[in-house]
Design brief:
The complex is a heterotrimer of chains A (383), B (237) and C (400). Chain A is of the alpha+beta class. Chain A is built from 3 helices and 24 strands. Chain A has 4 domains: 91 residues, conserved putative lor/sdh protein from methanococcus maripaludis s2 fold; 89 residues, Efflux pump adaptor protein, beta barrel domain (Elongation Factor Tu (Ef-tu), domain 3, Beta Barrel); 61 residues, RNA polymerase II/Efflux pump adaptor protein, barrel-sandwich hybrid domain (OB fold (Dihydrolipoamide Acetyltransferase, E2P)), CATH 2.40.50.100; 87 residues. In chain A, strands 1, 18, 19, 20, 23 and 24 form a 6-stranded mixed β-sheet that branches. In chain A, a hairpin with a 6-residue loop joins strand 13 and strand 14. In chain A, helix 2 runs antiparallel to helix 3. In chain B, strands 6-7-8-3-9-10 form a 6-stranded mixed β-sheet. With 237 residues, chain B is an alpha/beta fold. Chain B has one domain: P-loop containing nucleotide triphosphate hydrolases (Rossmann fold, 3-Layer(aba) Sandwich). In chain B, helix 3 crosses helix 4, helix 3 runs parallel beside helix 5 and helix 5 packs parallel to helix 6. Chain C is of the alpha+beta class and 400 residues long. Chain C contains 13 helices and 12 strands. In chain C, the strands form 2 sheets. In chain C, strands 1, 3, 4, 5, 6, 7, 8, 9, 11 and 12 form a 10-stranded mixed β-sheet that branches. A two-stranded antiparallel sheet of chain C has the order 2-10. The radius of gyration of chain C is 31 Å and the shape is elongated. The chains are: A alpha+beta (383), B alpha/beta (237), C alpha+beta (400). Chain B: Keywords: ATP-binding, Nucleotide-binding, Transport. Chain B: This is ABC transporter ATP-binding protein. Chain B: GO terms for molecular function: ATP binding. Chain B: InterPro entries: AAA+_ATPase, ABC_transporter-like_ATP-bd, ABC_transporter-like_CS, ABC_transpr_LolD-like, MacB-like_ATP-bd, P-loop_NTPase.
């Protein structure tokens, strides 16, 4: 035997070769398709979940007043600016009436002159009436002729007719004046309700068409969030439910709201339900209209059922279910899933019982024959 | 029963036609078992050619060689396997020991019987026996590089002897050694020749050892001349 | 009989090990190269696997959502869904873009997944951590290769998303990691470039008198609104009912809906045959070169080792060693060298593979083939040395 002589060298060779071989065997067994797949398992718990519905929307005002002229015209003055709060009936601006004021003055003068005419006619009638009365008395005592008395009666009739004409003329002129005044008033832009000026589309001097809005006013108390919910996940959404609103500009602060109504019309193109969510109390700084908001509607808590994480849900051979872990290995169980909440918990209606172990995370797609290696976690960070 | 090596009329021609050169013309040698003869001659005299012919590594052109009882060459090789012939019938000892560096001393010696098909244990036992005879058994497990020159040469001699060949060819075995060691080597060769009944041919031009031979073959221009040597007695170690 | 090769190797084992390690690193590179190719093929396959689809419905005459851009209306899935044999049909969008996280920019394939929960086509089929998307907006599941962690805020175009789940091996055919976001966000992301682009578009629309007509109030707003809405998706992923042939479902869709439909083998042909054909030829060239270099190196090493022993070989021959024994010795040494090289190569390739930015898949079959190739190369490489050894004249051992 030559072994003892070679001992030192043999030892040295072994020191190099054995680790190499050990590494090789390790490499062969632990990598490649033969290696076991690392998974984590979790236990099915029976618990209650509180489903919630998540949607996004934009802040809108329930009442928006778009104030403009009913006739074309040039803007003469505009006193309201964006951000101004206005009260009901407040004059916001005026359109240039061109000769409207002059025509109004002329009519005013006309009315005055017709009123003078009226008074004149009244005076004539009163005089004519007095004459008739006098001549009637004179005729009684036969101190005047029948003819003269008849003449006086005829004069009275004429005076009365003149008076009627003067009255009508005055009324006509007054009506005309009022019509012009009304037209004049239409050139005045008045706030129909108290609110906030949110837009001022034109400046004085601009000619606007009939129907174009010059100023937009909203009622800040009427702000709500026009929210869109995905139809697939909107189960249980109803009016009156409490909602949490997070504005894009303030992601940290939670505003309370309430579902005001679900719109009877859904958006068929985007497959979304539309709902209005009102603020319970408005934030002190009003959110700008059009700002994006995330709305979470909390639904009522559901009775306890077996619950798994949605990370455990897999699709295998066209069925949705989970990999159930038993001492023997893995078995795919197809499941009937119920509601879920936003934290990823899903109710299991059928297929699992509390206490069952299911594969939660895995490194690879699993199949029935996969060898597995159960570990605590797969990423080096706690889930 | 004739033993030893007999060479009659051996000739060797290199090349052919005009460039032909007759390196050995008419070589006659006879070495008996147990005898150590010297083969001396100047450079170019045909010493090496003769040694190569004897060693069966080149083909002689004509002549006759008898090794022990077997005619191995008679105007052509009479044995088919020259390798086996070299392995089993001829022992070589070279100028340098030429030990196999990756085998230890025992295996260097045991390699030949192993090549011949002897079981390892038996071959090693025989090697150890020879090493003991040559007084290097204490280095049996050493590697060649750990040995001194004399020890290496003794191992080389052991290797030459291990298959109990009828003849040993020693090519300048003492060249790298000082006179004391050279004499020791010659003494060993003489002892071994007697002990194993082997004919030993020592090719040399080492003046120190020439006087030790009983018989000397001079070779000059391809022709051998036999002379009586001084046969000086070897001093005990 | 003792093993001459074994003794020689034991004698100069350091030389052998170090030469073997050197050779091994070269073999490791070769194996890794093969792994890169396999990884590319696998990237394509997992892309198809992970989509969970049996059929891909895409724009007519395009090469599907992965190899070419495709746009189809986002309402089309409904008419596909009601075709006989269809179990599920969902919209999906794929777009490779930059995803920002804090100061970092990651190139990723953003996948828009149809609402409906895990298990439907297009969704990540498994997770490493976290959970699947539950909200219809602004949540993301990212491949771990993006470097994102749970809870990270990432920005895709104009919107911020929270990473709620991590997955693995979800890559595009180009190897970019995937980020899954809800479909509506993805549609928007695909269309909306950035705020500047939107403003420019609005301005150019406003400058167009066709759209900006004072006499038609609201027209400009309507046009602008229609410009910021993108009603198209890249493909409809179809899952079939069990036992239904893909062809039977695909044919009517092709014929009556004027769309292109691919089944799994066709999709693989597109991804592997067309998308990575050039790259694979490139890698094939590298493999050939590396094999040649390895062969040359083994041949050179064996040649040198034999040259060092030429004297011993002459002696061995002189003392009667058979050619077979000597050739065997050299051959065995070459093969041992190859074996050490292969072992080292396999180990180094396995440990190096995860460090590559793209997926490197080392298949056992490749290792086997690699081993055979190494052995064949070693045998061939030792031929030169064996020839030289056999040509050594035993007479050389006899000096002079």
């Amino acid at each position: 035997m030559t072994f003892p002589r070679l001992q030192a060298r043999t030892l040295a060779v072994l020191v190099v070769v054995l680790p190499l071989l050990a590494l090789f065997v390790y490499v062969g067994a632990r990598s490649g398709p033969l290696a076991p797949v690392k998974v984590t398992v979790s236990t099915v718990e029976s618990r209650s979940i509180t489903p919630a519905v998540f949607g996004i929307g934009t802040v809108q005002a329930r009442y928006t007043y778009r104030i403009g002229a009913t006739v074309p015209g040039r803007i003469a003055t505009l006193n309201a600016d964006v951000g101004d709060r206005v009260s009901a009936g407040q004059l916001l601006g005026e359109l240039d009436g061109v000769d409207l004021d002059e025509r109004l003055a002329a009519l005013q003068a006309g009315v005055k002159s017709s009123q003078a005419n009226l008074r004149k006619a009244e005076t004539s009638r009163d005089f004519a009436r007095a004459q008739v009365r006098r001549y009637d008395a004179l005729l009684q005592i036969q101190s005047t002729s029948e003819e003269v008395a008849a003449l006086k009666r005829q004069e009275l009739a004429v005076a009365e007719a003149v008076l009627v004409a003067a009255k009508e003329d005055t009324l006509r002129l007054q009506a005309e004046r009022e019509a012009l005044q009304a037209q004049r008033n239409h050139l005045r832009l008045l706030a129909p309700a108290a609110g906030l000026v949110v837009a001022r589309h034109f400046d004085p001097g601009t000619t606007v068409l009939a129907g174009q809005a010059v100023v937009e006013i909203i009622d800040p108390a009427s702000l709500w969030v026009h929210t869109r919910f995905d139809q697939v996940s909107a189960e249980g959404l109803a009016a009156g439910l409490p909602a949490e609103i997070v504005l894009r500009s303030a992601p940290g602060s939670l505003l309370n709201g309430r579902v005001l109504r679900i719109e009877p019309l859904a958006d068929e193109i985007t497959e979304e339900l539309l709902a209005k969510v009102a603020f319970t109390t408005l934030p002190p700084a009003l959110p700008p209209v059009g700002e994006l908001a995330e709305v979470t509607v909390q639904l009522a808590a559901l009775p306890a059922t077996p619950v798994i994480s949605n990370a455990a849900v897999r699709s295998y051979k066209g069925q949705r279910g989970v990999w159930k872990y038993q001492a023997g290995g893995l078995e795919f169980v197809s499941l009937q899933l119920g509601r879920s909440d936003l934290q990823g918990h899903v109710q299991v209606l059928q297929g699992l019982a509390a206490g069952d172990q299911v594969v939660l995370y895995s490194e690879k797609v699993l199949s029935a024959g996969t060898r597995i290696d159960i570990t605590d976690q797969l990423t080096g960070q706690q889930p | 029963m004739a033993k030893g090596i007999h060479i009659e009329g051996l000739s060797k021609r290199y090349g052919s036609g005009d460039t032909a050169f007759l390196a050995l013309k008419d070589v006659n040698m006879r070495v008996e078992p147990g005898e150590v003869v010297g083969l001396i001659g100047p450079s170019g005299s045909g010493k090496s050619t003769l040694l190569k012919c004897l060693g069966a590594v080149i083909d002689p052109t004509a002549g006759r060689m008898t090794l022990g009882d077997d005619v191995i060459f008679d105007n052509g090789w009479k044995v088919r396997d020259l390798r086996a012939l070299r392995r089993d019938k001829i022992g070589f000892v070279f100028q340098a020991p030429y030990l196999i560096p990756f085998l230890d001393v025992t295996d260097n010696v045991a390699l030949l019987p192993m090549l011949a098909g002897m079981p390892d244990a038996q071959a090693r036992a025989r090697a150890l026996e020879l090493l003991t005879a040559l007084d290097v058994q204490h280095r049996a497990k050493a590697m060649p590089s750990q040995l001194s020159g004399g020890e290496q040469q003794r191992v080389a001699i052991a290797r030459g002897l291990v298959n109990r060949p009828p003849v040993i060819l020693a090519d300048e075995p003492t060249a790298p050694l000082d006179s004391v060691r050279a004499m020791a080597v010659i003494r060993i060769l003489n002892e071994m020749a007697k002990r194993f009944e082997t004919a030993v041919i020592v090719v040399t031009h080492d003046e120190k050892i020439i006087p030790t031979f009983q018989r000397i073959y001079h070779i000059r221009d391809g022709v051998t001349h036999e002379e009586a040597g001084e046969g000086r007695a070897l001093s005990p170690p | 009989m003792i093993s001459l090769a074994g003794r020689d190797i034991l004698h100069s084992w350091g030389k052998f090990i170090f030469t073997g390690i050197g050779l091994g690193l070269l073999i490791g590179v070769t194996l890794t190269m093969a792994g890169v190719y396999r990884g590319m093929v696998d990237d394509g396959k997992v892309l198809l696997d992970n989509s969970g689809a049996d059929l891909w419905v895409v724009q007519q005459d395009t090469l599907g959502p992965y190899a070419e851009s495709s746009g189809i209306p986002d309402t089309l899935w409904r008419s596909v869904r009601i075709m006989p044999g269809v179990a599920d049909a969902v919209n999906v969008t794929y777009l490779t873009m930059q995803v920002r996280q804090a100061e970092r920019d990651v190139r990723a394939m953003v996948v828009g997944v149809h609402a409906g929960g895990p298990g439907i086509p297009g969704w990540p089929p498994y997770l490493l951590a976290g959970r699947q998307i539950t909200r219809g907006h602004y949540e993301a599941v990212a491949d771990i290769a993006t470097g994102f962690t749970l809870g990270d805020e990432i920005t895709i175009r104009r919107h911020r998303y929270q990473v709620v789940g991590l997955t693995r091996r979800m890559v595009s055919s180009g190897g970019d990691p995937m980020v899954f976001i809800p479909l509506k966000d993805a549609q928007e992301a695909q269309f909306l470039k950035d705020n500047d682009a939107i403003l420019r578009q609005r301005r150019s629309t406003a400058a167009n008198p066709q759209f900006n007509r004072p006499a038609v109030p609201g027209l400009l707003e309507a046009v602008t609104a229609s410009q910021t809405h993108n009603p198209s998706v890249n493909a409809v992923l179809v899952r079939l009912l069990p036992g239904v042939s893909a062809h039977d479902v695909a044919e009517p869709i092709r014929r009556w809906k004027h769309l292109t439909v691919y089944d799994r083998p066709q999709m693989e042909a597109i991804l592997i045959g067309k998308l990575i054909a050039t790259s694979s030829r490139q890698i094939g060239m590298f493999l050939v070169i590396l094999a040649l270099v390895s062969a040359a190196i083994v041949a050179f090493i064996i040649y040198t080792l034999t040259m060092d022993k030429i004297r011993e070989i002459a002696v061995l021959k002189l003392i009667g060693t058979r050619n077979r024994t000597i050739a065997g010795m050299i051959l065995q040494q070459a093969m041992v060298l190859g074996l050490i090289g292969f072992v080292v190569g396999k180990i180094s390739a396995t440990f190096a593979a995860p460090m590559f930015p793209k997926y490197v898949l080392l298949l056992p079959i490749d290792s086997m083939l690699g081993f055979l190739a190494v052995m064949v190369i070693c045998v061939l490489a030792s031929v030169v040395a064996i020839r030289m050894a056999l040509n050594v004249d035993p007479a050389e051992a006899i000096g002079g």
